[in-house]
Amino acid sequence: MLSVPFLWDELGNQYQLEAGEQRVLDEAREAGLKHAISVPLFGPSGVSVVSFTSPFDDAEP
């Protein structure tokens, strides 16, 4: 529902996440994805999202 890029680490602080949304973030962390940024892409067919993730503690967006 966001129209601008967002950091996964900040979602829980900025929004009230539903259980399923929080589960996705928790499972990503458990899989070793420590940091991520998603960029929504809007086009004539709807919305797509591209995400970049990192397993490193010192990753910068």
Task: Outline the structure in words.
By secondary structure, the protein is of the alpha+beta class. The chain has helices at residues 8-14, 19-30; strands at 6-7, 35-43, 46-54. A three-stranded antiparallel β-sheet has the order 1-2-3. Strand 2 (35-43) and strand 3 (46-54) form a beta hairpin. The longest helix has 12 residues, at 19-30. The two termini are 20 Å apart. The mean pLDDT is 90.
Summarize the structure.
This protein is 31% helix and 33% strand. The chain is α+β, with helices and mostly antiparallel strands and 61 residues long.
Level of helix content?
Answer: 25-40%
Question: What is the total tally of β strands?
Answer: 3
The helix/strand order is: EHHEE
Q: What is the averaged pLDDT score?
A: 90
- What oligomeric state best describes the polypeptide chains here? single chain
Broad shape: globular
Distance linking N and C termini: 20 Å
Number of helices: 2
Structural class given helices, strands, pairing? alpha+beta
Gyration radius (Cα, Å) is 12 Å
Strand count, sense and closure of the main sheet?
A: 3 strands, antiparallel
Major beta sheet, strand line-up: 1-2-3
Q: Proportion of β residues?
A: 25-35%
Q: Low-confidence spans: pLDDT under 50, at least 5 residues? A: none
List its traits.
33% strand, 3 strands, alpha+beta, 61 residues, single chain, 3-stranded antiparallel beta sheet, 2 helices
